[in-house]
Structures
1.
Amino acid sequence: MKRDIFQAIADPTRRAIIALIALQAMTPNALAEHFDTSRQAVSKHLRILAECELITHEQKGREIYYSLEIEKMKEIDQWLEQYRQIWEARYGQLDELLEVMKKERA
């Protein structure tokens, strides 16, 4: 079963994992050092992120390194863009109103 990408990022631990591997590829053991949970719990989060294709893994010797799939993150950005445009328009209107009020007081 393929999970929804937003289910994957709904969990704070998975968002923290994404933030960590955005900087560099990491092994499950290295990731587990950043959390108060077990390595198995981190591996479960990694599996969910991989199911959503947010991360990829590469075997290097005996270690598996996980890295962020930037192209998949763009789906999140594209979804957010519609709301970003709405809020930027509203902030623009607020700026204009504040400027008018400032001129009226001067």
2.
Amino acid sequence: MTRLIDPHLTHLSELMQQMCDLSIKSINLAIDSYLGGQNARNEVHEISNQILNLYDQVGDLTFDMILRYQPVASDFRLIRSSIEISYGFTRFGRYAYDITVVRDTFGDLSECKNEVIYTLSGEIKHMINLAVQSFARLDLDTVKQLLTDEDLVDKYYNKHLPTLINSKNTKCALADALVLRYLERIADHAAFIGESVTYIVTGKRKTH
């Protein structure tokens, strides 16, 4: 039997899926443009704005559902966590834009080796996909992998950031330091999405 709240939950799911798709697109575009030397600032900025617009729609919809239907138990956890997760998607868009700003500000970075960025960016792209999958499937095994990967990113970040101090190329070191920081923050928000999924499924918070 279809409940009155069900069509709204379906609409919420559609909005969240759009945010998922745009988040993946923005991160991939920003990282690839940085490493490839293309300027994608305007395009990523537009995607980030689309994510923000969807975030507002999610906020309005969830507020309306809480007021009109007073959801309980799993429905309430899903609605509450959708607000938190949709915020995480807005951060993906913002950090993706910040990465394109670095590329735009510093100009040609082809002289930089970017080895650290190459390595870490692959892991970040993988984590974004895990975060999206964990939410779409409400899969705790994927959450577990996501949190493990986040620990690895932290260790990699903490290991390589100090090495930039001794770099002979100040321009490359500054650009890498900024982008590394943005990638580390993206990993944090991906892990936070995993924690929200854990809350939806179990009703308990598991922080890393």
